[in-house]
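Thread: Newbie trying to understand structure tokens

Hi all, I'm a second-year student working on a class project, and my supervisor (Dr. K.) asked me to get a predicted structure for one chain before our next meeting. I've only ever worked with sequences, so writing a 3D structure as a token string is new to me. If someone could post the tokens and maybe explain what I'm looking at, I'd be very grateful. Here's the chain:
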Amino acid sequence: MPGGRGVSGSVDAWFSPEDIFLFREGRHVRLYEKLGAHPMRVAADTGVHFAVWAPNARAVSVIGDFNGWQKGAHPLKVRDDGSGLWAGFIPGINRGALYKYHIIARDSGYEVEKADPFASQSELPPRTASVVYDGTYAWQDEAWMASRGERIALNAPVSIYEIHAGSWRRVPEQGGRWLSYRELAAELPSYIADMGFTHVEFMPLTEHPFYGSWGYQTTGYFAPTARFGAPEDLMYLIDALHHYGIGVILDWVPSHFPTDMHGLGFFDGTHLFEHSDPRRGYHPEWHSSLFNYGRHEVRSILVSSALYWLDRFHIDGLRVDGVASMLYRDYARAPGEWIPNAHGGRENDEAIQFLRELNEAVYRHYPDTQTMAEESTAWPQVSRPVYAGGLGFGYKWNMGWMHDTLDYMEKDPIHRKYHQGQLTFSLWYAFQENFVLPLSHDEVVYGKRSLIAKMPGDDWQRFANLRVLFAYMFCHPGKKLLFMGAEFAQWREWAHEDSLDWHLLDYEPHRGIQRLVRDLNALYRGEPALHRADAEPAGFCWLDTGDWEQSVISFYRLGEPTDEPLLVVANFTPLPRHNYRLGVMQPGLWREVLNTDATVYGGSGQGNLGGLATAPVAAHGALQSLNLVLPPLSVLVFKAPARPGSGG
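---
Reply by user tm_fold:
Sure, no problem. This is what the structure looks like when written as tokens:
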């Protein structure tokens, strides 16, 4: 056995007093520099320094393929300050060695083998050992990193393509296997760039034992899943995306973790990471464990995980999953199944503290990135600064807009006039948060049907309705998110074991949807009125919300004073509207810059011949008006005449 029996090195020397203080205070944000497996040279010996937190252990040893998985062969030493940190150096171990920690509980004598919570690499599932990693990567994205902050700012066009890495595209001639990180790098960046998306959001790439969890049951908070390659392969993919000018958002899950034996649960013979009482420590819907955010060390570990992905992988944003489940103690629980807080309420005060500390740490160290909350309730000030009483996120997913809009679009157009409030209601609260409008993976699974399959009517009407949905989303205030496959109207629900149905692009209706999404991204990015004031009330103005009888709405999108306004008119019925008059804010020629009924998208080709001049006919409180043709099931976007001296 390399290095003989036992471990060398001082556990006290490895951790500084500042490390210990910050860890125990819950304010150490880079614990991965101290905990885990670190290849190094000590005197004349090359080996690995191991460190793990197990405060209730009587003994901890490193077992692996280098010592025949023999318990006790390489024991670690514990600090005598009560911190519960065990550490030691084992010479003779190289990169790629497999290891776990063998832990004996202090009081019960319970024995368990655990993967390293701070491992940078894991075995390919279903195997569960940690892997010693010391890889390096030479980043080539300096230009991107210097300018990325302005590309995800509140006044920037942010259009996100959500992807599940294992099912975006597969290799049918090789048994339908998924693409590796490097194979994705050869195809994904150019596709996203061609489609005009500004960012890609990966569903969780942190290591997870069950592929069918889509990554949301995380065991490796510092390790990218080995299913698609080594850590440096993921770095290569991110670098390639940055080369194409595409930002990378990682779906990150600090809300719960799985109960797999090798994972975090009952780690040292006690409920170390999770609450011991199942009314606080177990999630009844996900059958997983809930973090104990009241424990300072746990908060340090989770914040360190967030910073790790920003530090080592150049991630540009974190989408935080399951925020609502963290904020409420009674989330998904019946009466009597939860414990009130100290004030008798349902709020999870410890989780609130953690989320604020998380966001403060991220923005302190990386002010050019963003955090995004998946929060499905009306919790106030999710995307407002901590100093102003908020949770500190940069953005919040607008789940209310998503539910109301999809519910409205699924209705037969003959009934939509009775539900027009579902479309207009989102504008009552559109600027209370910095919103992202999500049409995500959650809406196309578990019998909910794909987006195109949700649409009513015959096939022509279904495609027309989908065009209306996408155009309405891109014109509505808020950043955009679209799940893979929706951009070409995949009929099937998403299935994580299968590739997307790329063959559908052999058919013109699907190519038409793809063209529209590409053009919508170009319009969104190219027209300042659609993004500069996305999060400000000044960026939106209703023209007419009252034509519920014909299911027509019209509104302006506004940027800075020097930007030409855009007029958006949406007809949510299959009946064309001729001589539809709208009073407008400026006289002159209003150019038609988008018509979802254009034949190139699969529409009927009706419209306004590229633009219309105003007439001196009063309407809607204005002295000048447009006499429009509204095609069936369509969204029209007109650009206002250039103001004198604007240069437009």
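A couple of things are worth pointing out once you decode it. The longest helix spans residues 508-526. Residues 11-131 form a domain with the Immunoglobulin-like fold (CATH 2.60.40.10). Feel free to ask follow-ups in this thread.
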